[in-house]
Each structure stands twice: as structure tokens, then as C-alpha cells.
Amino acid sequence: MADASPYILITALIASLMLIGANALYPQQGSVFGSLLSYDRLGGFFGVVTLLVTLFVTVSSVVVTNERPNAPLYYSLLSFTALGMLILSYAADLLMLFIAWELMSLPTYALAGFEKRRAQSNEAAAKYAIIGALSSAIILYAISLTYGFAGTTQIAPAVRAIASQPFNPLASTAILLFVVGFGFKMSIVPFHMWAPDAYEGAPPTISTLLAAATKKAGFVAAIRVLLAVTTVYAVTQNPVFSTANVFAVLALVTMTLGNIAALTQKSMTRLLAYSSIAQAGYILIGFVMYAYSTGVGGYQQEAIIGMTGSLFHVLNHAVMKGAAFLVASLVLFKLRRADVQAYGGLARRMPVSAFTLTVAFLALAGVPPLSGFWSKVLLFLSVLNGPYSWLAVAGILNSAFSMGFYAWIIKRMYMDESETTEKVNESTGFVVVFAVAVALIIGLGIFPGPAIAFAQNAIPTIFAR
Amino acid sequence: MNTLMDFLIVSAVLFAIGVYGLIVKRNALRMIFAVEILINAANINFVAFNRYLWPSALGQTIVLFSIALAAAEAAVILAIVVVAYRLHDDIDVSELKTLGG
Fold first, then answer.
1. Which end of chain A is more exposed for a tag (fewer CB within 10 A), N or C?
2. Could you tell me the residue range of the domain that residue B81 belongs to?
3. Is B100 domain-assigned?
């Protein structure tokens, strides 16, 4: 008998996606539950992104979990994670944020180790869980310092209290710990070391969730907490350590190291993991001008462009990386191989998957007219004028460099011969997700307007503070 | 008479011990202890700030939440460690090295 649990979750996810999407278009701003949650467009934006990825993962997982007796457990854990990410998107209180963070993280530890007889899966879960526990403990410590400083856990008043003073060691330590704690989940260098191992060992559908969804939840937490406290110098009173500089250096190091490490990988899931780290670097570029604008002043236009680019890239990256990881999941599920050699001649054996991976890779590299191109244009435009123009140069160089290994995989799939040309049956659930993802990537590339407006509308809620 | 600073110093020392434990220890159970110490360092902060600076129940309420979450977290990680023990007959995390490349 077919198990009903995935279909229940799919229905629930589609229903909540429609509800949140509609509310994000026509929001009634405000707060609910005694201002524990803020009901705004930023939350709506990230709610749509994270739920979309969870929907992709759920639809594709149906065929993978079909033969497992404990499939209902898998889907209930998935739904808890989705709920955690959703609450995190809307959280307006540090206590709520922490609880949502744990609600999002704890099920993913269990999901990463879901194939409990496979040693790699358990190893991935162990590494991910210990690093995850460290990051949540660091966030809790940062919250405790913020509470001591401001006397409240409401994000907006706490942030105002911190921002009203030019420098305070207590507040600066809290901000630094927030950067570290969120940095682990966003997998920015130097807090990325768990990501390749976790993504490689975990069941690949769960790696999709980790790379495309929970990582984005880390970004929304960072946007809500960190971006309004930019007048605090991160380490000392020396302006060299301003938060804008910290973000700029993190962005540079993250995208460069991610791309260089991706080039040397033999396993597809590890390559995707490092490419995902590099993309986190691009998203951080948008934060830089915002931090500079709030900290030093001026450049308001650039700050808005940068944040729009960041949010748009969050959406694009969720779709592109989700599609790419799901192709890797299908190949691993059907061929039982994850190394890049398995992708030789894939176009003849699995044409839909090969085409999806090609589109996703071209979009990740930023080839026009795909969606990834527009968000990168916005990101690089934002830093082009002003003190961080070197970051735009570095970003463009990185994009060109990353095209190297993406094109190499695409060439492998289309030009190389495989040992066998036997056709592989591509499961319907995966094909449906691939079709939607490719349509989104190409559609948002040709008509980026609505999505950019959607992202831009989410920004005033950050500025409003 | 204890001052706020005494509690903050104890908490900072506990935090340092927790980070040290996570970095140096290779036994999975010890690493879980280290995480618990980190969380309790934060809890001491909450209660101390509540007692000396902000006399409402907020800080103590957060600690109750945090204790419950720490227990849930420890349960999940312990379950993963039990599975690791069944697979490897060992809980030394340096044995976990099949991934990498």
C-alpha cells in the first residue's frame, strides 16, 4: 500500500505557500503573539523561498522513501523543519528566533542520519549535529549578552539600544558571536568546514534541504539581527573593523575559497557543496553597502540595490541549487554513484536530468538570460560605486572562474561517452520538480521584474528600524 | 557579596571551557558535555542579568526554554552517537573519516 504521508505534506505545503504568497503580496504589517512574530514582507519572502524548496524536496523524496518502512517519520521531520524555517522567517523576538532555530535544526540532524545503517550518513549527521549544537549555543550566548545590554529580547528595541552607542565591548562581543553563530548555518568561510561532509554523507534529498533552505533561514536571521547594528564596530573602535568591512572580507574569502575548492572535487555532492559556499559569498556582497550606508551614511541607492540583489539571489540560489542537488540525488538513487565520472554521457542516459543540471549550472555561473545573471548584476552594481569597487571586480572574476568547472561538467554530460548508453528511467516526481525549477530559472531570467519587485518590497521592513 | 561581574566571569570561563572541550576532545560524549557547558554559560548570563540589571521574569523564562531545548538537542545528538557506536563499536569522532576528498 502506498504511504499517504508525503501527499499530506505536499498538500499542506502548497496550501501554506499560496497563503503566504498571497499575504506577502498584500500584507497587513504588524505583529502577532505579543510581538513575538512580525508579520511583514521580509518574512513572507523567506517563507516563500524556504517552503518552495521544502516542496521540491518532498515531491522528489516520494520515490526515494517508497521502499522504506519509516517513511512517515521522514515526512514528519521534514514538516517540523519547514515550520521552524517559517517561524524563523517571521521572528521578531530573539527568544522566538532561538526556538525557531532549534525547531529547524533538530529535525535536520535526525534527517541527515536517516539512513542509519549507512556509515556515511551517520558520520554526516554526527559532524553536522555537533557543529550545529555549537552554533546554537553561541547564538544563545550572544542573545544573553544582548539581553544584558538592552534588557529586552525584542529584536527592534534591542538593536536600537545597541546602535545608539558608538562602541560597547559587551554589544560588540554579542554581534561578533551572532556573526559566528549564523555563519555556521550560512556556511560562510571560515565556518564552512562541516558543510561538504554533511552534504556528501546525508541522504542527497536532505542535502538539498540543507543547502537550499536551512541555509537561507540562516540568512534571514542574519538580516533581521545583524544588518541594523552596523554602527557598532565589530572588534575595536578602529574603523578598519567596521561591520561593512567584516562583511566585505567574509564575502571575498567565502566566494573565492568556495570556487577554488569546488574546482578540485571528485564527488558531485562535494562540488555542489563548495559551489553553495561560494554562492553564500555572493549573497553577502549585498549586505556590504547596506552596512556601510547605515554605518557611515550616504549610498542609500546602492544599499537598496544591494539588498534587492541579495534577496533575489537568495530566491534564485534556492531554485538553482535545489535543482542541481536534486539531479545529483536522482543520479545517486538510480546509478548508485556520486563521482563526476558517473556524469559522462549522462545526456544520452538521463536527458531531462542532464538538461536541468545544465540550466542550473549556467544560471549559477551567471550566464544571461537566466535568473542568476540578474541577481549577480544587481549585487555587483551595488558595490561598483563607492569604497568597495574591488568587491565587484572580485565577484566578476569569481563568476568567470566558476564557469570553468560548471562548463567542465556540462561538457562531460554532453560530449563524453559513457560505459553504457542504456536509458535510465527518470522518476516522475523528480521530472515534475525539474520542469518547475527550469521554468522558474528561465522565466525569472526573461521576466525578472516581478521577482525583483517582490524582493525589493521586502526591504523597507529592514530600513523601517 | 557577589556582584554581577563575578557571575559574568564564571560564565565567560564556562564558555571558554566549552569551546576548549569541543576543539580538543575527540570523544563524542565529551563533546556533548562541552555543548551543555556552553548552553549553561549562557543560562548563567541570563539569570545574572535578570537578578542585577533587569528585574522582570524575562531572563529566567528564557532559561526555562533554553533548558528544555538543550535537553531535546542532547537527546537527538545522543541518538546519533548511539547509532555511531553500533556501526563502529567506538564513539571516537576521529574514527569518522570516511567522508572527504
1. N
2. 4-95
3. no
pLDDT tens digit string along A26-83? 766 777 777 888 888 888 899 999 999 999 999 999 988 887 888 889 999 999 999 9
Give me the residue from A120, A123, A137 closest to B39, CB to CB. Answer: A137
C-alpha cell at A312: 533575489
Query: Which of A130, A266, A269, A341 should we substitute to test contact with B (largest number of B Cβ atoms within 10 Å)?
Result: A130
pTM (whole model) above 0.95: no
Task: List the CATH number of the domain containing B48.
Answer: 1.10.287.3510
| Residue A370: alpha-carbon gap to chain centroid | 19
One-letter amino acid of B68: A
Which runs of consecutive H residues, i.e. helices, occur in A344-418?
346-349, 351-365, 371-384, 389-415
Q: Which of B46, B72, B83 sits opposite A147 (nearest CB)?
A: B46
Strand partners of residue A226: none
How many domains does chain B contain in total?
A: 1
Return the amino acid letter for A145.
L
Of A281, A206, A289, the closest CA to residue A245 belongs to A289
Nearest to A316 by CA among A272, A276, A355: A276
The b/e string for A180-209 (b: 16+ C-beta within 10 A; e otherwise) is bbbbbbbbbbebbebbbbbbbbbbbbbbbb
Burial class of A4 by CB neighbour count within 10 A (0 to 12, 13 to 18, 19+): exposed
CA–CA dist B13, A372 (Å, integer): 46
Amino acid A342 reads A
Tell me if B101 and A95 make a contact (CB, 8 A cut-off).
Answer: no
